[in-house]
């Protein structure tokens, strides 16, 4: 299946809210995520949005397709992604862009098949994504992948950073798994001076 055929396929009325990916020409359907999955996606999206506001570049998307390759066609929709290819809303690609995100986040759910998650991570790293975070909310940990580097597992007492690719990015892992009303939540960084 080509990228264009996949676009038509996922936008058929009978597919409604279903979620699909295209990996090397093969359509793969995702299961509907659970509530903890949605909370983690929202929390990470908000932390990354705060980071974008702080450094005044980049933007955050959730579950939006990105064309990683055309032959064979691969279109993935990371749960959360951080892009740096546009500075104004008007510059956003109207469909699926073909510039990879700097950061792609996959939140693993109990019903995910490890082989599918691993295939996505391989595709991200092989096609220009600099950082991939695989979040395991049951274990309260995150595995960090970077091209040509060993993976790194960060537990609940650790901190995610962006390194040279996303300077100044720092998120306490424990904060990802706390709701706003919980005690001990690290306050967001102060906005930069105007």
Please provide a written account of the structure.
The chain has 194 residues and is an alpha+beta fold. It has a domain at 33-65 and 75-176: tt1808, chain A, CATH 3.90.1570.10. Helix content is 24%, strand content 29%. The chain is built from four helices and twelve strands; from the N terminus they run αββαβββββαβββββα. The protein has helices at 3-10, 35-55, 114-126, 173-176; strands at 19-23, 26-30, 59-61, 66-70, 73-76, 80-83, 103-108, 131-136, 141-145, 152-154, 159-162, 166-172. It has a six-stranded mixed sheet, with helices on both faces. A hairpin with a 3-residue loop joins strand 11 (159-162) and strand 12 (166-172).
How would you briefly describe this protein structure?
With 194 residues, the protein is an alpha+beta fold.
List the helices and strands and how they pair.
Blueprint: H1 3-10, E1 19-23, E2 26-30, H2 35-55, E3 59-61, E4 66-70, E5 73-76, E6 80-83, E7 103-108, H3 114-126, E8 131-136, E9 141-145, E10 152-154, E11 159-162, E12 166-172, H4 173-176
């Amino acid at each position: 299946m080509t990228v264009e055929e996949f676009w038509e396929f996922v936008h058929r009325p009978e597919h409604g809210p279903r979620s699909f990916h295209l990996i090397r020409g093969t359509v793969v359907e995702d299961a509907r995520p659970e509530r903890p999955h949605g909370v983690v996606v929202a929390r990470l999206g908000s932390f990354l949005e705060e980071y974008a506001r702080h450094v005044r570049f980049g933007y955050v998307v959730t579950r939006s397709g990105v064309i990683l390759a055309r032959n064979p066609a691969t279109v993935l929709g990371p749960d959360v992604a951080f892009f740096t290819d546009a500075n104004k809303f008007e510059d956003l690609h109207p469909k699926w862009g073909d510039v990879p995100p700097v950061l792609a986040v996959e939140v693993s759910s109990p019903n995910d098949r490890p082989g599918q998650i691993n295939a996505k991570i391989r595709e991200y790293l092989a096609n220009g994504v600099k950082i991939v975070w695989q979040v395991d909310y049951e274990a309260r940990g995150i595995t960090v992948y970077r091209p040509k580097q060993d993976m790194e597992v960060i537990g609940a007492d650790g901190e995610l950073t962006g390194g040279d690719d996303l300077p100044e990015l720092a998120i306490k892992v424990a904060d990802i798994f706390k709701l706003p009303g919980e005690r001990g939540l690290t306050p967001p960084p102060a906005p930069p001076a105007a």
